[in-house]
Amino acid sequence: MQEHLKTNILNFKWPSSTPVIYLSLEDIEGSHPIHRSKFSKQIKEAFPDTDISGLEHIFTTFTQEIPNAPTIKINLVKDKELRIYKQFLKHQLKTYFLEKGYIVVKNFVRDVQVWMPSKKGNTTDYNLYYKFSFKILFATLTDLPELVVSYDGTSKVLTKSVKEIEETEFIKRCVYGQKTFNYQMNLDTEDKEEFYNSIEFTQAFPIFNLQLARALNIPIEEPDRPKNRYQKYVLLITTFAKNYLFTEEFKALFPFKQDAFIDVPGNRINHINPNLGLLEFGKDQYGNKRNHLVPKKAMNILNPYRRPGNQNIKIFFICHTSHKDSVLSFYQNLKEGVNTEKNYYKGLEAYVNIKATASKEHFIEFTNENDPIPEIVEQLESLTFDHENVKYAAFYISPFDKFTPDPDDREIYIRIKELFLNESIVTQVVDYEKMIVNIQDQYNFQFSLQNMALAIHAKLGGAPWKLAVTDKKELVIGVGAFTNQGENRRYIASAFSFQNNGLFRNFEYFNQNETELLAGSILKAIRDFTSVAQADKVVIHFYKEMSYEELQPIIDGMNKLKLGVPLYILNINKTEAEDMIAYDVNWGDKLMPISGTYIRIGVNKFLLFNNARYPNDIYYADTDGYPFPIKIKISSPDDDAFEDVEVIEELLTQVYQFSRLYWKSLRQQNVPITIKYPEMVAQIAPRFENGVPEDAKDTLWFL
What we know:
Blueprint: E1 5-7, E2 9-11, E3 20-24, E4 32-35, H1 41-45, E5 57-62, E6 71-73, H2 79-99, E7 103-106, E8 112-117, E9 126-138, E10 145-158, E11 173-176, E12 179-182, H3 190-198, E13 204-206, H4 210-215, H5 229-245, H6 248-251, E14 269-271, E15 279-281, E16 290-292, H7 295-301, E17 313-320, H8 324-336, H9 348-352, E18 356-358, E19 364-366, H10 373-382, E20 391-398, H11 407-421, E21 426-431, H12 432-440, H13 442-459, E22 466-467, E23 474-484, E24 489-498, E25 508-511, H14 515-530, E26 537-542, H15 548-561, E27 567-574, E28 582-584, E29 597-602, E30 605-608, H16 621-624, E31 630-635, H17 647-658, H18 673-684
Parallel strand pairs: 17-18, 17-19, 17-20, 20-21, 23-26, 26-27
Antiparallel strand pairs: 1-28, 2-10, 3-5, 3-6, 4-5, 7-8, 8-9, 9-10, 11-12, 11-13, 14-29, 15-16, 15-22, 23-24, 24-25, 27-31, 29-30, 30-31
Helix pairs in contact: 12-13, 14-15
């Protein structure tokens, strides 16, 4: 079936006559700043009696006349003035929707975002809004200006005002009129103080957040997670465009070439050969290699690539006293398999090819579910472990799920994970309530057991599978991040170094601003790798664009090592609820493009689709999901890095391959483990009281 890819872009025409804008040296009412980076020759000449090169900003009212003010006619050929034209168009967008009475804000990448009130989903506690963002591009996919229309999810605005709420410490952002503000903002400038003092608390309405909702006893619903996000996304942007953009009034500002989202130009589309994502599993009894493309299918018929290094594995449980009778049923299913007609999980040994037995003498039970640590520590200190001959795995049966309202309850598992990691014991959490439901539903329970068995196998040091195609000698280093919203602090994990076969080496983690330590850990990974093998290239997968401060120490270090090999940096971003996507209208109503499809959206910028939809293969929608594409920008500090035209596809293929090595679940991931694994460490490790033990930095305990 031939694909037909469309994207969330509307083409509009270049203006027949570009606007004349008014300029001012003063920040007058209704004016907008023009940053010095946009000072073109024409702008400088507009102020013949003033040297504006030393100013940070000048100002414009755009097309609103200022008496006796200098003007320029924007020249769209000049890059600096094209950026002013984009600023003008964003101003028009904002003004248009403000005049219609809608809330208009900037999203996190400072694009115009419009909040549309919902007709459904409102309650007595809050009103629901759908959020749509606009990004303006010039000749990115086509030769015309482009308006990217994206759906950014929803927000709930409480019906209670700030004045009616006692627990103000839980208030974060608020809607005030047609804009939003941070209630907890630092009052460190006169402007902020003046704004804060002007707020009428009866007219400021907090935006829903979990802490505030719990404090106000607002019912917390499970988040809406549609099976196919493409369907919801495309339906919403199509309906929004039809109702609000394809009108004569809006098209007077943005004259669309056609009232429809554009097709992706054929010369921008390419595909990675699915066979390059082939995975190697355990050899058969005759020593023949066994390969497969889909882990979910392969694990039912093939053995894992490599067992954990210790032949003796023992499992024990940590649970509340009232739950211990249920643990036996759980263990029997884990060890022996499930009782269902369609049986895809026949037990731990059959599924991941390891011998494991219960260690009854290490069973730990506690009575205080809100503070179990003292009881667990007391019992742990009385136990002895044979670490020389046995590898242990502990299953913690948690009385609380990850959505439990009390943050202290959510932290218990972190404390337990650290406690046992210090004893060289890996842990696996099991949600008690979900476990009870699953035991009753044996068919669906087996899929949870498959994922647990897979994760335990990897945590114990095994390798369920690896890449089959490994003809390059490359070192790949991943750097990921996690932002702790409670602390408003970002942590990063780095030096997740991988051989070209995708097998993990080790990791470190840091605070966001520890740039030199980050560079040092990356250089250590390079030294360790190149001391035993010559690398063809060094590749860094980074969760954002690398700054000069982050990159320069690495370049200096590589020069000192005299490696003489190119360095490539891939900035890899999720496109979870914003930015550019594409969809295949020839795949019925499922819409998701084939796995390995990539689209060039700029100079060395790409959308890459990582999923489990392969040509001429059955797609298991219920279990495989519909992941969105990731956005990749490729750069290099080396002048001749891109002389070989094939290097781009090689680097994209590498990302595609590394997204197939996730061992926490059988579901295909859209983000490579070089980003995913560091993010998981950055989420957990900084919450440890004494840090990660050194001997645990080369294991996958965090899965």
